[in-house]
Amino acid sequence: MLSYLAAALPAEADAAARLLALQGALRATASGRLHLPAGLLRSLRLNQRPSPWQGLEQVGWLIRLPAGITGVPRGVTAQLLDAAVLTQAPGRQDRAHAADKALRLTSCRALRNLPTSDRLTALALVTHLSPGSVQGAIEADRIGRVCAVPPDILAATLDRLVTARVTDWWSYDQGAEDITWALGPALVEQHANVFAE
Questions:
Q1: Could you give the domains of the chain?
Q2: With 66 labelled, which of 116, 141, 166, 177 sits at a CA distance of 20 to 30 A?
Q3: CA 123 to CA 54: how far, in whole Å?
Q4: Is pLDDT at 99 greater than 90 in this prediction?
């Protein structure tokens, strides 16, 4: 889903909009309706920020529905306008399970106080690991597109993840233009718990 959103959303869609779009796409019904409860938005650290919603509306990816229209309690209800997103995703139960895993990872103790772009980058790194592995590699331009992190800022983002012990180390191979990394102690156990289920 992260790869699909990297292609579907314009480059100017920031990390907060992409994290919101990810949860929306994974939690939407077959008809594209979604409700993100206030508690979930708090966990994402997006509960007081209207700009990600506005950004997704401006690019025609979703439209928020007026409060109270569906009789659903606090939170945000919206309609996805990107019909292709649901055809790219697995079934509803698998999507809900993936949404929960992504939420638990991005709101874990090691990540919860980092900027949204760092949390999205950590999620992207973890999802690009082979099963059972704590080391991975990905093309630098691909991780930048997926996470809306410009090339000149990617190194600083990865350095913050090392400082937070989310990753142990990272390196850039100029020949292959790949980023390689190893999960740090702050995420190894979280990764094992969340993605082993």
A1: 2-90 (1.10.10), 108-195 (1.10.10.10)
A2: 116
A3: 23
A4: yes
